[in-house]
Structures are given as structure tokens and as C-alpha cells.
Automatic annotation (TrEMBL):
Family designation: Belongs to the RelA/SpoT family.
Keywords from the UniProt entry: ATP-binding, Kinase, Nucleotide-binding, Transferase
Protein name (record): Putative GTP pyrophosphokinase
GO biological process, one term: guanosine tetraphosphate biosynthetic process
Ranges of residues in domain RelA/SpoT: 47-169
Pathway the protein takes part in: Purine metabolism; ppGpp biosynthesis; ppGpp from GTP: step 1/2
Residue span relative to the full protein: 1 to 215 of 281
Top-rank lineage group of the source organism: Bacteria
Subunit-structure text: Homotetramer.
Residues passing through the membrane, by range: none
GO molecular function annotation: ATP binding; kinase activity
């Protein structure tokens, strides 16, 4: 048993390293924007390595032999939270620009254009990420989830309720949760509208001030 625990800890090392490195890289992007006094499309970043019990449960669910866990796409997971929906696509572009450099994109899943039946929204990018270990380079898969604060609020609570009730929530509760997902989407749209309105008003004010100073 102790031997098995030691083995698992060793398997997890490159995934832990990938999560730490990717968090540092996304935080560096945010710092760059802030140092230049520019608005950052990244609000905050979290990361986690999947728990061993969840990995084993997923192996069982998808019939993945334990020795093939490196096929699993979300052992290393990074979440990038944004204020506005537009920011998500700016972050996606930043990631695409790094494709073939420090990471490679395997594929993308757009759960914003195509939300899940639960109401879940987020933009997922699966990447291959090389980690330098004491025994050479190890490429691991990682899942980047990019979402707004409202999407994250909804997903965090929905996930914890589902987890608590072991995915057996009654249909009426699922439907109510779906409605709260719609409310979160409305909030995102309204916030974007308000922001655009403020930007438009600011531009008009600047144009008027320029006209006055030209006279
Ligand atoms: P955790 O704790 O975040 O790791 P599967 O991984 O089997 O669920 P698939 O198709 O391989 O399915 O991956 P998918 O659905 O593209 O992305 C899986 C992850 O996205 C989940 O990981 C969640 O983080 C998130 N996610 C997907 N659907 C939902 C949903 O309906 N509600 C919430 N709250 N999150 C969702 P894990 O392993 O479930 O959880």
C-alpha cells in the first residue's frame, strides 16, 4: 500500500509542476498589463491537480487502464477568470499565440457557444505542456478553463452541490440550477452592455473636449 502511494506521488510530480508553471505564466501576463497601466483580460488564476481518488474514478468510468492515465486530459487543470465575456476570447488569442512555443494546443471545447445541458459555460483548451524533470522532458496534458466571474460563481456552486449529492440531483433541482445559469449569463451580458456604454460615453466626452481645445 505504502509502495503504491509512493508510486502515485511520483506520477503526480510533472502534473504538479505543470500547474505551478502555468499559474506563474498566466500571472505574469496579468502583471505585464497592470505594469503598463492597461486593463488586464485576466482577473485571477487558480490551478489544481486532480485528486488520485477522482483519477481512479474517471479511469473506471471511461475504462482507462491505470497505466494509461497520461491520456487523461484534466489531471492538470488551470482556471483563468475574466471580468467580461470579450476578455475570454482575448485570453484564448493569447494562448493560441503561444501554440508551438511553450505549449501546443491539442483541441478546444467551446462551452460558451455550446453550453452543456446542465447550463455549464466555459471555454476549454486542452494543451500539451513539456515539463523539465530530473529524468528529462515529460510532456503532460493540461486543461485550461477560461470563464467569467459569473460563470465561475455558477460552476463552483453547481459542482459542489452535485458532488455533495453524488450527481443524483432531482430533475426539478437541475432545472432550477439551469435557470440560475441563465441568470448568470444575463448578468454577464448586462455587465458587458454597461461597460460598452461607459466606453462610448468616455469617447464622446474626449471628442467634445478635443473640439473645445481646438477652438
Ligand atoms: P474538477 O473537480 O473540476 O476536476 P468529464 O471530465 O468526464 O466530466 P469531459 O468531456 O472529459 O468530461 O470533460 P469536460 O466536460 O469538457 O470538462 C470536464 C471539466 O469541466 C469538469 O471537471 C469541470 O471542471 C468542468 N465541467 C464540465 N461540465 C460541468 C458542469 O456541468 N458543471 C460544472 N460545475 N463543471 C463542469 P471535473 O472532473 O468534473 O471536476
Amino acid at each position: 500500500m505504502e509502495h503504491k502511494v509512493r508510486e502515485w506521488k511520483q506520477v503526480m510530480i510533472p502534473y504538479e509542476q505543470a500547474v505551478e508553471e502555468l499559474k506563474v505564466k498566466f500571472k505574469a501576463i496579468r502583471k505585464e498589463y497592470r505594469d503598463m497601466n492597461e486593463y488586464s483580460p485576466i482577473e485571477f488564476i487558480t490551478g489544481r491537480v486532480k485528486r488520485i481518488s477522482s483519477i481512479l474514478e474517471k479511469c473506471k468510468r471511461y475504462n482507462i487502464p491505470e497505466e494509461n492515465i497520461d491520456e487523461m486530459e484534466d489531471i492538470a487543470g488551470i482556471r483563468v477568470m475574466c471580468q467580461f465575456i470579450d476578455d475570454i476570447y482575448k485570453v484564448v488569442d493569447l494562448i493560441r499565440a503561444r501554440d508551438g512555443k511553450d505549449l501546443s494546443i491539442v483541441y478546444e471545447k467551446d462551452y460558451i457557444g455550446n453550453p452543456k445541458d446542465s447550463g455549464y459555460k466555459s471555454y476549454h483548451i486542452i494543451i500539451r505542456y513539456p515539463v523539465q524533470t530530473a529524468f528529462g522532458t515529460k510532456e503532460v496534458l493540461a486543461e485550461l478553463q477560461i470563464r467569467t466571474l459569473a460563470m465561475n460563481f455558477w460552476a463552483t456552486i453547481e459542482h459542489s452541490l452535485n458532488y455533495k449529492y453524488q450527481d443524483k440531483l432531482p430533475l426539478d433541482i437541475k432545472e432550477r440550477l439551469k435557470k440560475t445559469a441563465d441568470a448568470a449569463s444575463m448578468l454577464d451580458l448586462e455587465m458587458s452592455d454597461i461597460r460598452n456604454e461607459i466606453i462610448r460615453a468616455q469617447l464622446m466626452f474626449e471628442q467634445k473636449s478635443n473640439l473645445v481645445s481646438d477652438i
